Amino acid sequence: SIFHKRILTRFLHPTTQHLPTTPSSPSSTMAAVSAISNGAKVFMAKKGTLTLKKPSLPSFGKNKTPAKAAPAKKSVAAPGRGSAAERQLWLPNTEAPAWLDGSMIGDRGFDPLGLGKPAEYVQIELDALDQNTAFNPAGKVIGTYTPFDTTVTEDSLQPYNEVFDIQRFRECELIHGRWCMLATLGAVVAELSTGVSWVDAGKIELEGSQYLGFGLPFDLRTLVIIEVLLMGYIEVQRNTTLDPEARCYPGGAFDPLGLADDPERAVQLKTAEIKHSRLAMIAFLGFSVQAGFTDSTSPLENLSFLN
To answer: CB of 265 within 8 A of CB of 259?
Structure first.
C-alpha cells in the first residue's frame, strides 16, 4: 500500500527523510512521531501503531548491559460476568485466551484456532535486487503494525477496518444464528403443516407459490424479486450503521414491547439469544448432513424415535 511504501522509503533513505509534524491531508495516515526509551520510533496512525526496530550498532569492545524489560501489565478481568469467580468456560478447569476476557455476551473462552486474536502485521524491508551479484539477501523485519480498535465505515462491502476481528465475528455469529433459528423453526413448522420436508419445498413452489398450504397471488419469480428487494434494503440499512452495538442490537421497531429497556433484563435476553443461535446453527447443520448423507430428508422422521 502507499502507507507501507512511504514507511519503507523513509527507513531505507534516512538522508532524505522528512517527517511531517502534522498530516499533509485528512486522508493521510501519519499523525505524529514520538521517540521511546529504547530508541525505536513509533508512528501513530489513524488505524494502528507502527513500531520500527532500531538498527543495531557495533559495540567496539564495550560491554553491553542488557536492558531491563519493562514489567508486564496485569490484565484485569471485567467485573461481573467476566470475573474469575462467576465466569463459566466451555470446558471446566481450562484457561481462556487473553483476548477473551469475558466482557462480551456469551463469552465462554472458546477459540481453539485463535481466530479472535488481535491482528499484528510484520513490516519487511525490500529485498536486495542487484543483478550483478550472485546472491541477493531477503529483506529483514524492520517493525510491526498493530491496528487500533475496530471501527466501522460506510463501506457496504467491507464496513470493518479489520476483517479478522472479534467484533466482526460477533456480528456474523448473531446474523447467522438468527437466520438459523428462523430456518430451523420454519423447517419443522412447515413440515408439520404441509407434510413436505424443507428439501422438497422448492419443488412445490415451482408448481405454484404457496405458504403453509395457502396459495399466493404471484409466481415464484415475482416472489424472488420481492425477497431480493426487501433483503437488499435491510442489508443496506444495516451496513450504513456506524455504531457497532446498533449493528448487532438495533432495538426500536425490532423491540416493540420494550423488553430490552431494563439493562439487566437486556443482558439476560442477549445471553439467551446467543445460546439459542449457536444451538440453531448446530441443528440446521445436522438437518443438512442428514439430508445429504441419509435416505431421509425429513427432520421429523429422524426424530420419530422420541415418540
So the answer is: yes
Cell of 100: 477473551
* Cα–Cα distance, 307 to 288 (Å, whole number): 23
**Distance from the first to the final alpha carbon of the chain:** 62
The answer to whether residue 235 scores a pLDDT higher than 50 is: yes
Our CA dihedral for 36, 42, 45, 50, rounded to 10 degrees, sits at: -150
| Cell digits of residue 1 | 500500500
Note the pLDDT tens digit of each residue in 4-35.
Answer: 444 444 444 444 334 344 444 433 333 333 33
Integer CA distances (angstroms), 245 to 8, 105, 159, 250, in order? 37, 12, 14, 8
Check residue 188 and give its pLDDT: 92
C-alpha of 144 from chain center: 21
Distance CA 218, CA 119 (A): 49
Region for residue 8 given its phi and psi (left: phi exceeds 0; alpha: psi -120 to 50; beta: otherwise)? alpha
Count Cα neighbours of 237 within 13 Å in the Cβ-side half-sphere: 8
How far is the CA of 85 from the CAs of 89, 104, 213, in angstroms? 11, 16, 53
pLDDT per position as a tens digit, 127-153: 888 888 888 889 899 888 877 767 787
Cα 64 to the center of its chain, rounded Å: 44
**How far apart are the C-alpha atoms of 27 and 144, rounded to whole Å?**
22
Q: Report how far residue 227's alpha carbon sits from residue 112's, in angstroms, rounded to the nearest whole number.
A: 37
